[in-house]
């Protein structure tokens, strides 16, 4: 069975993420979307909310499992019986960063492979941080994130 892990903060999940999930799910028997706790980031949504939003926005993809973790990615992957890491790329700048991360993972754990999937061009400019910034200034995020996520961002930003 081919099990892959697609790790990330997903704060918030965007239509670009969904695009990667849909396409990656066709390549593997199980795709685990793993929300990573990054202590260096101050998230808009807590871990449980991000898991909930991912669960809601990926329910149309039958072979996806949503989870969360903290710690080393290679250890998490082994706990899940996965040997593939999926990373989405938007631009050349993403590739440079992700390439270095993939080489580091390969160095500490030669059994793991990293697969890069380019996002569709219509989502190449979308980032979670850009969505949060746009929304915080009252900009329209319709079509950039799933509808349920858009509503949740709107209510969260109004409370901040």
UniProtKB/TrEMBL annotation:
Pfam families: CTP_transf_like. The record marks 17 as: Transition state stabilizer. One of its GO terms (molecular function) is pantetheine-phosphate adenylyltransferase activity. It is found in: Cytoplasm. Substrate binds at residues 9, 41, 73, 87. GO terms for biological process: coenzyme A biosynthetic process. ATP binds at residues 9-10, 17, 88-90, 98, 123-129. Keywords: ATP-binding, Coenzyme A biosynthesis, Cytoplasm, Magnesium, Nucleotide-binding, Nucleotidyltransferase, Transferase. Residues 5-133 form the Cytidyltransferase-like domain. Coiled coil: none annotated. Its EC number is 2.7.7.3. The keyword Manganese does not apply. GO terms for cellular component: cytoplasm. Its main location: cytoplasm. It catalyses: (R)-4'-phosphopantetheine + ATP + H(+) = 3'-dephospho-CoA + diphosphate. Its cofactor is Mg(2+). Pathway: Cofactor biosynthesis; coenzyme A biosynthesis; CoA from (R)-pantothenate: step 4/5. Homohexamer. Belongs to the bacterial CoaD family. NCBIfam families: coaD_prev_kdtB, cyt_tran_rel. Reversibly transfers an adenylyl group from ATP to 4'-phosphopantetheine, yielding dephospho-CoA (dPCoA) and pyrophosphate. This is Phosphopantetheine adenylyltransferase. The gene is coaD.
